[in-house]
Amino acid sequence: MPIQLIFILVFLTCSIARAAIPQPILDCLKKHNETVQEEIPIYAKGFSLYKNTKFSFIEIKRGFWLKGEMVTLLISPKPIDCSHVKILRSPFKKVLSLSTTFIPLFELGKNKDFLQGISGKNFINSSWAMEKINKGQMKDVGYPPNLEMVAHLAPDLILIYPLIDQEFSLEEKLKALKLNYLSFAEYLEPHPLGRAEWIKVFCTVLECGVNIQDEFTKIVRGYESAKSVAQKSRSKPKIMMGSFWGGDWHSPGGDSYLAKLVGDAGGDYIFATPKSAQTKVMDFEYVYSIFPTIDIWLPHASMRDLNSLEQEDSRYKMLKKFKLKIFNYDKIKSENGGIDFWENGVYRPDLILSDLVQIFHPELASERTLVWYRDLKW
Predict the structure, then answer these.
(1) Which of 152, 182, 344, 350 fits as disulfide partner to 222, beta carbons 3.0 to 4.6 Å?
(2) What is the pLDDT of residues 23-34, one digit of tens each?
């Protein structure tokens, strides 16, 4: 292809991308005679950022906000009159998090003291957060959240998960209390680096005090480095993920972020097709018929050991006959059972991938200690 044509195509692509600024943002900029610089995510599909030195816009794409709607947020330290946007007045120095997933983000930089409330301390792995709770420097509003305690805490901002809103119908209750809230749905991102990239949204809102682009670049480089190691292997071990839940066997869908991690680590995920992000629910007879072909099983279950799994469901005993390597993701967990994989692991897919490469291809991996996975024996 002629170099001139390549240049034209690149120019047109960039022009189209920058022309797609949402109308509410364009209207607001025109009204106040302002401009913004667009920051296009590399892997994430759920948001776009538009910034200048005075304020920032965050467009949450359809499906990534509460009830699946699309929302445009305006983060500004000063009052500003704009229509059809959700305005949040920064800075936020008294934050309540209704999910433990957000805790590691407060440990990134200067905003540690901003986290003053959490929902459900029994789910927490972070020793830093538990210490603050034990010292009375952070409130546990319970799980489900006690709205009287939430109102008494009077946070500047509440971080919520769409799933917790669906379970407890929180949005309307928070509106009635006239409390600011921000919804994160990074778990819907199909790419592990897409999930991690939501740190850009978090730090746009809460001013982490670190160069977040540099931090994310390090994560990307680590991920690509681990992936390149896996590509050197000529073998692809067959991988099973999942465990019993409610009597049925649950495994991640073929288009889930866990399936992506297994694929990039050089594993052959047994349910890689069909491509669906939905959890695959199966009867045990079908799963049992597949186990003879499996090399490595990743239960991804909360357990003390394999014997404790047997106590939960006796059918696990039937898997003892197979020559499997078994690794679970709960190497780091608190006394209460809070699993770090769902805290720091969300934002460090590079380290998760390195763990998986070492498990799948020990002949290629360096002599490093696994971070989140532990080897289990019957």
Answers:
(1) 350
(2) 999 999 999 999
